[in-house]
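Input.
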Amino acid sequence: MTLSLKPALTAMVIVGIVVGFSASAALAQATFMGRVVDTVGAPISDVTITLRNLDNGQVVQLQSDQNGKYFRRALTIGPYELTFEKEGYVTVRDRRRLRTGRTEHDSVMAPAVVVRMDLGSSPEYAAAFEAFNAGELVRAIEILTPVVEAERDFAAGFLLLARSHFELGQWENAIVDYRRVIELQPGMAIAYLDIGVAYMETGDLESASGSFEKALVLQPEDASVHYNIGTIYIQADRVDEAIVYLTKATELDPESALSHKALAFALVRRSDMEGAIRHLERYLEIAPDAPDAEEMANLLEQLRGS
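Output.
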């Protein structure tokens, strides 16, 4: 029984495990999480985050914690208007479509006085800032590109340009811009996280791993960083290291269905069927309505009989 399972599981790991911050194989409802920081990467606490579902008008509010993080489960899937507000900072508006599983969204808020000075001194940046917040990403890129070419030390401009390319899935361009952000602001964890995802999307797992490792130094208690490193190591067939990081991810965020699922697959590859069963059971407890729930339940029965 065991011999017949392993090839199938190996294939599932290679083509089925979700990598990066994708939400393609998790819950039937959405989980929304992220971090709010200022323009130099410092966390901002007590930010009021308002989500308005554009399909049904439902409004949900949450606040960032002392580390700038926020988290909300059991949200309806669909398009949302996002608003980030705190006194002394410029209000940020954005739009995201929440899909099954996790949607990660990091927001950068600038102090009101600083932004007014920046916007006043650069009308082009002001226009790009407004275009980005309105969801007009292509327009933001068109405006910002000549601005950062002329001002190579304009960190805020490069960050906004990188985010625009990132949201559009233009990974190579995002990588170039985030590299410049990191050169100018080496302590900005968000830049390492996003460029790591971009590297993963292009298949450059070595660079992705290096970027996530740097993010881990800056945010050692971030479960999503441990999860991403773990999935990279699975793809690189470094299973023992994958197990270490994925185990830590489940400890930091015990409700992360994706981390339990990835860890179960990694444990199968080390013939730890007992551990794999435990984490696959946990996956199904957290995500009973996941798109692959029936498939995983069948796999669980096979593991129990192996």
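Residues 1-28, 113-120 have pLDDT under 50 and may be disordered.
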